[in-house]
Amino acid sequence: MPVYEFECPEGTVSEKLVKMGTQEIRCPECGKKAKKILSQCTFELKGSGWYADGYAAKK
Ligand SMILES: [Zn+2]
């Protein structure tokens, strides 16, 4: 499983080992939802629709 970085609304960044496709975790510091940061590793996105779909829905 890959390690991802997550950032909560408070600005706390935590690294966590999660399943592929996990979009958010609960922040260990404040307990709020922390969203995945995609800056770290640009892995292959071909063939997966969750990335584009998730961002399109937000805007
Ligand atoms: Zn937090």
Describe the protein's architecture and organization.
- There is one protein chain.
- This protein is α+β, with helices and mostly antiparallel strands.
- It has one domain: Single Sheet (Rubrerythrin, domain 2).
- Helix content is 15%, strand content 31%.
- It has one helix at 50-58, and strands spanning 3-7, 13-17, 24-26, 33-37.
- It is elongated and about 25 Å long.
- The N and C termini lie far apart (29 Å).
- The structure holds zinc ion.
- Zinc ion binds next to loops.
Tags for this entry?
15% helix; 59 residues; 1 helix; Rubrerythrin, domain 2; four-stranded antiparallel β-sheet; alpha+beta; binds zinc ion
CATH class: Mainly Beta
Q: How many helical elements?
A: 1
The amount of helix comes to 10-25%
SSE-based structural type: alpha+beta
The CATH topology corresponds to Rubrerythrin, domain 2
Shape: elongated
CATH architecture: Single Sheet
List ligands, each type once: zinc ion
Unreliable stretches covering 5 or more consecutive residues:
none
C-alpha-based Rg, rounded: 12 Å
Helices and strands in order:
Blueprint: E1 3-7, E2 13-17, E3 24-26, E4 33-37, H1 50-58
Antiparallel strand pairs: 1-2, 1-4, 3-4
